[in-house]
Design brief:
444 residues; alpha/beta; Rossmann fold; Ubiquitin-like (UB roll); six-stranded mixed sheet; four-stranded parallel sheet; 19 helices; 19 strands; 34% helix; binds iron/sulfur cluster
């Protein structure tokens, strides 16, 4: 297989970043790089989907990495996961050795899996501000993305998602589920312990509040059930107006948000305490101090871990990013060499301390049961945009019968636009194509 065929198969199968990014994998791997890193850090507390995947499919992951490495002429291939995942290492080490892949044992800290953090840890190189790993000749893929690429090479498209359902539930589990399955369908299996609850899609640090009818997408890592009064929910429900108002009245400029910010510690010129001061008061600061909000990964450390006053620099940065994006304003990096700050070594956040601060100690030591496959729902809701780029265009009509794995929506204008093809995740009949494709098996 040559380079073009590899990339085409990945694109045809609709593979996108499965760790949450959703970037089309065929486009990412079309860049020039000499280092390739498998990201198995899974640093968001409570999620276990990558751990189960790495334990159960070590050969698929390692063999696929070797094929990618050979086909794309990569010099060095690394597999990175936390050292504490002893069962993963036991399972995958023979495959890594056979495929000449370098193991990288990561500390149990947050955010070990952030691409910028990971590249520095593995290669000792800092990705410059407002850049991507390709700038340092590196490509990073989440382990589930690599697993999906392995299946794409066997002409199997992306139809299912690995995820964890946990929190205040009777039966926390990790499972492989059809894309388009709703959160409420999965919660029937998990059985919430409380009557009134909120649902977070993703991890406790970076996940979003969703409604029970939220469907699983190619980027969904899990659903977490917590009580409405839990601090994880309070932060998420805070309006931007309220966040700005309390920033103006109680931010004491202690700088804890900056001192613990993972991007600041990497040497990036992001200083959330200065953005907080300028946002709360009419101060005139150099434009680059404010546009540095564009460097924020929205990891949540400043908001949910660092700030002693319960403020949310993350939310204010997120709002600034939207505003700057609408105005076409970009962060201008002056090209200076960037190096991690000395204090980074002792300011990184151990997962256990993070769990204590988040109020999730009750759930952190539970190991969710692994369910290889669940009985498929009779109805799936498949989003036309579940990836970076433009929405896919439906190629089916209402009333069409479709089979699992059949292509149902395609990147508009073929290769010209950034996007991803989408495939049916169950056998059934199309009952809607806009705004989402709905497939019902009961209609057959
Ligand atoms: S940690 Fe909180 S109080 Fe301290 S500077 Fe940052 S936002 Fe202000
Ligand atoms: S969310 Fe806060 S801690 Fe995380 S990168 Fe942004 S400013 Fe830094």
């Amino acid at each position: 297989m040559d380079r073009d065929e590899l990339l085409q198969r990945i694109t045809d199968a609709g593979v996108v970043g499965a760790g949450g990014g959703g970037f089309p994998a065929g486009v990412k791997l079309a860049g020039e790089f000499i280092h390739y890193i498998a990201n198995g850090a899974e640093c968001e507390p409570l999620l276990h989907k990558d751990i189960e995947l790495m334990k159960h499919y070590p050969d698929v992951i390692a063999n696929t990495m070797r094929i990618i490495g050979d086909t794309l002429a990569v010099d060095n291939i690394y597999f990175a996961a936390k050292e504490k995942y002893s069962q993963v290492w036991e399972s995958i080490n023979p495959s890594l050795e056979k495929n000449n892949i370098i193991p990288k044992y990561l500390e149990d800290i947050f955010p070990a899996g952030d691409e910028f953090d990971l590249v520095e840890t593995v290669l000792g190189k800092v990705i410059p501000p407002a850049n991507i790993p390709l700038t340092v000749q590196t490509a990073v893929n989440n382990v589930e993305t690599i697993y999906n690429i392995g299946r794409a090479l066997d002409d199997i498209p992306v139809t299912h998602k690995w995820l964890t359902v946990t929190g205040d539930v009777v039966r926390p589990f990790t499972a492989v589920v059809p894309i388009g399955t709703t959160a409420e369908y999965l919660l029937e299996l998990a059985r919430p312990k409380i009557k009134n609850y909120c649902i977070i899609e993703g991890g406790p640090m970076m996940g979003n509040l969703v409604q029970p009818d939220e469907p699983v997408k190619k980027t969904t890592s899990g659903f977490i059930v917590v009580a409405p009064e839990h601090p994880l929910i309070t932060y998420r429900k805070m309006s931007i107006q309220y966040a700005l108002r309390i920033a103006a009245s109680v931010c004491m400029q202690c700088r804890a948000c900056t001192d613990l910010c993972p991007r600041y510690l990497l040497g990036h010129p992001l200083e959330p305490h200065r953005i907080m001061r300028a946002s709360a008061m009419p101060l005139s600061l150099p434009l680059n101090v404010m546009t540095a909000a564009l460097l924020c990964s929205e990891c949540g450390v400043c908001e949910q871990f660092a700030c002693p006053m319960g403020l949310s620099p993350r939310k204010i940065n997120a709002e600034l990013k939207i505003n700057f994006g609408e105005q076409g304003v970009k962060f201008q990096w002056n090209g200076d060499e960037i190096a991690p700050r000395e204090e980074r070594e002792f300011r990184r956040i151990p997962s256990q301390r993070l769990a204590e601060r988040l109020g999730i100690l009750d759930y952190i030591n539970i190991h969710p049961e692994f369910i290889p496959s669940i009985s498929a729902p009779e109805r799936v809701i498949i989003r036309l945009k579940q990836h970076t780029g433009v929405p896919a265009e439906p190629i089916v009509k209402i009333g069409n019968k479709v089979e699992i794995g059949q292509e149902i929506a395609r990147i508009p204008n073929g290769k010209d636009k950034l996007g991803a093809n989408i495939h049916s995740s169950i056998n059934g009949t199309i009952t809607s194509i806009q705004p989402d494709i709905i497939i019902e098996s009961g209609e057959e």
